[in-house]
Structure formats: structure tokens, C-alpha cells
Design goal:
mainly beta
Length: 273
């Protein structure tokens, strides 16, 4: 699932009728066995209840507040899933934004099952609701009633940040992943630019990896036009200390101001990377 730049996996194209048929089977197929023993939860650098709050600024001007959190666990079509949520709200004169991304991602495999995007930017509203079927290799957008082919290991925009947190990274390398749930927008590119010292809300100085995730061209948190940068602590927890995103009116910098970090489970299985 992880490979460096220049290596790409081939895949056979699936026609529209075959995709629709696979989606129908996915909706009807039973999931799991009711007598199966629960699998151990893999090792992650985050846990339910993690809440990271950011001060959002446009240059030196205070813009609003952002939040990244592991809200709770839920169930999607019989599969245990984390609910990840990313929010950003604020504005400047003549322009305001209120964005929310929510991802239902499998607890045991970190594969996306549902993705909901609510955006209000500059007076324009956008809503997208996707149901994602990893076993069948399809996604269905309920908001516009369309279906498409998914990658084998689908990850949506909100879940991608957590996928990056469990992925081994080296400074100076560029990685490609066939992980984005909309297969035609793959590969996802991840560039690790450098290490840089940052400060946590309690004043502790830490070294961070500065990474640039690229998913598609536009309309995405990590789209190429967003030119997003994420500063992750270079330690076990991989905490996002700073997130920088380019919008049409300027570049927003989200700097961590509060963090609630619940204890990590003492005994865990290896993470699915």
C-alpha cells in the first residue's frame, strides 16, 4: 500500500454497469460473523477523545478557530468505525467560511466507509455525502446520486491526516499511495520537506516533520491548489502542531492552542500500515 515515487500499480477499469452491480451487492451482503471474536484494536498514536484546537490566522489577523478530533466510535454497516471530524470557522471582511469534514473510518483497518463534507465559503454552500464500500471497490455519492470506482484501500480527506500519522516517513522523500477513495484522483502524493522546531501549547519545544499531502487538484482539504502543509511532532504521537492551507483570499495558518490527549491503550496490535 505504500511505495515511493515512480512505482504505480496497474488496475483494470470497471464499467459503469459493473460498478452499479457491485454497489447493489455491497448493500445486500451480510458483514462479518455474529459469533466471531472481536479483533484486537491496532496500535495508533491517537485515541477516542483526542481533541486538538487551533487558532486560525490570516497573516497576523485573527480569523477564527479550527478543531481536529476523534469524536467517538460508531458502526457503519456492521463495521466498527472511528468518527474523525475536522472543523474550521471564521472569516475576514467580505468573506467568511464554515467548513466541516466528517469521516467514518474502520477501527481495525483505517479504511473509509462514509465521508461527509459541509462547506460554506464566501457565500457558497457545498454538501457532499459519500458511502464507500472497500470490499466492492465502489463509492456512491448520495447528495448527487452518482457512483464511481474506489481504490482497494480507500481513505477520504479527513481520514488521510490520521493515515499520515501512522505512516513511517523520512525527510527528503516523496511517497505515493493508491489510497484516495475516488480512484481516478490517485495517486495521493506525500512530500516530507524537512524537520523544524515548533512549540506546543504548554511551551514545550519539539521537532516536527513538515509534510505536504496532495490529493487531487481542488475542492479538497489536501487538493493541489490548497498547497497544504502539516507540522507533525516527530515522536510517537505525531501531533499536528500546525496546519497551513491556501484559500482564494489568502493563506490560513492554524496553530495548536489547546490539546486534550487521552491515554493510549497499553496493549495493542500492530497498526495496519
Amino acid at each position: 500500500r505504500l511505495r515511493t515515487l515512480g512505482r504505480r500499480e496497474g488496475a483494470l477499469a470497471i464499467g459503469g454497469q459493473m460498478i452499479a452491480a457491485a454497489l447493489l451487492l455491497a448493500l445486500q451482503a451480510p458483514v462479518g460473523s455474529p459469533t466471531a471474536a472481536p479483533a484486537p484494536i491496532p496500535s495508533y498514536p491517537f485515541a477516542v477523545g483526542e481533541r486538538l484546537t487551533y487558532a486560525a490566522k490570516l497573516g497576523i489577523v485573527s480569523l477564527g478557530e479550527g478543531r481536529v478530533e476523534v469524536v467517538r466510535t460508531d458502526t457503519v454497516r456492521g463495521v466498527d468505525a472511528f468518527l474523525f471530524r475536522f472543523t474550521l470557522a471564521g472569516g475576514v471582511p467580505l468573506y467568511s467560511l464554515d467548513d466541516t469534514l466528517e469521516s467514518w473510518t474502520g477501527v481495525h483497518d483505517l479504511l473509509s466507509r462514509r465521508f461527509v463534507q459541509r462547506q460554506f465559503e464566501g457565500g457558497k454552500t457545498r454538501f457532499r455525502h459519500y458511502e464507500i464500500f472497500p470490499d466492492s471497490g465502489v463509492w456512491h455519492e448520495l447528495s448527487r446520486q452518482r457512483t464511481g470506482e474506489s481504490s482497494r484501500f480507500p481513505t477520504d480527506d479527513a481520514a488521510f491526516l490520521y493515515f499520515v500519522r501512522v505512516t513511517p516517513l523520512e525527510v527528503g522523500k516523496t511517497y505515493e499511495f493508491d489510497r484516495y477513495f475516488r480512484k481516478q484522483l490517485n495517486p495521493v502524493v506525500l512530500k516530507v520537506h524537512k524537520r523544524e522546531e515548533m512549540e506546543l501549547p504548554d511551551g514545550t519545544k519539539v521537532m516536527c516533520l513538515v509534510v505536504q499531502p496532495i490529493v487531487g487538484e481542488k475542492g479538497s482539504l489536501f487538493g493541489k491548489q490548497s498547497d497544504t502543509r502539516v507540522w507533525l511532532t516527530d515522536d510517537e504521537r505525531r501531533i499536528p502542531v500546525q496546519i497551513r492551507i491556501r484559500f482564494v483570499f489568502g493563506t490560513i495558518t492554524m496553530r495548536l492552542k489547546e490539546m486534550h490527549l487521552p491515554p493510549l491503550p497499553a496493549t495493542r496490535a500492530p497498526s495496519p500500515t
